[in-house]
Design a protein that fits this description.
- It is built from eleven helices and seven strands.
- The protein has about 240 residues and is of the alpha/beta class.
- It folds into two domains: about 140 residues, Response regulator (Rossmann fold, 3-Layer(aba) Sandwich); about 80 residues, Orthogonal Bundle (Arc Repressor Mutant, subunit A).
- It is elongated, with a radius of gyration of 20 Å.
């Protein structure tokens, strides 16, 4: 973590939240190379980010949505409310559902990490001026969702809960269905993540689905969620009777 510093003469204060130290260093130096911007705080996790944001009151917050063991998209509203800042995603994840969820949560734009460096600076400029930074496809998807406010009325309460899960959390729930007898370590290995990360995902899932443990999660998903392989859906296993 880098401690926040007093504001400089530069007009636009930017907070950066990025879990990888080398990338964080590069992003900070790129932004500070522009005379208009000043990186006033940086951190690698959500807890430090929330604390720093309240202290430095940035104009723009640049955030990687996939923090280790955290749902950073869920931080967007809290960060914006604490600071009034405009939140921007900087990610390598091209999943439209992740990006759309972030925009619907209040993010003002999405920049991909493989974009040219000048694209990030241009996005910061436009967003600081009150514009959104979205490609044409994303704009069309978001407009469609916004103009269909009744679309979720036909969903059950269980489906609404499932819709709150992040893409990674959905993968975890499906793995729990497919491997009910495996240990958490074995499940984490099948997902290529650490057991610690899996436990963090599960804590978030339990909270969103309002279940208390792995057994209740298994039953909930067996009733309301399908896996990619119908033959392996818990409710379709002969052994379940």
């Amino acid at each position: 973590m880098n401690l926040p510093r007093p504001s400089s003469q530069k007009s636009i204060r930017v907070q950066v939240i990025e879990p990888q130290q080398i990338l964080l260093w590069g992003i900070k130096h790129l932004i500070n190379s522009d005379a208009r911007f000043d990186v006033c705080a940086s951190s690698t996790n959500g807890i430090d980010a929330l604390r720093d944001a309240e202290f430095v009151k940035p104009h723009i917050i640049l955030i990687e949505p996939e923090l280790e063991g955290e749902d950073a998209v869920g931080l967007i509203d809290a960060l914006a409310q604490k600071t009034g800042a405009k939140v921007v995603l900087l990610t390598s994840n091209r999943d439209p559902s992740l990006q759309d969820r972030a925009i619907l949560k209040g993010a003002k734009g999405v920049v991909l990490k493989n974009d040219p460096p000048e694209t990030l600076l241009k996005a910061l400029e436009k967003i600081s001026e009150g514009e959104l930074w979205l490609n044409r496809n994303a704009t069309s998807r978001i407009l469609k969702k916004v103009t269909e406010p009744n679309a979720t009325k036909d969903l059950t309460s269980e489906q609404v809960k499932l819709a709150q899960l992040t893409p990674k959390e959905l993968l975890v729930t499906k793995a729990i269905q497919l491997y009910p007898k495996k240990t958490l370590r074995q499940v984490s290995e099948s997902l290529h993540i650490s057991e610690h990360t899996l436990r963090n995902h599960l804590a978030s899932i339990y909270d969103k689905l309002e279940v208390r443990n792995r057994l209740e999660l298994y039953v909930f998903c067996g009733k309301y969620q399908k896996t990619d392989d119908p033959n392996n859906h818990p409710k379709r296993r002969a052994s379940d009777g």
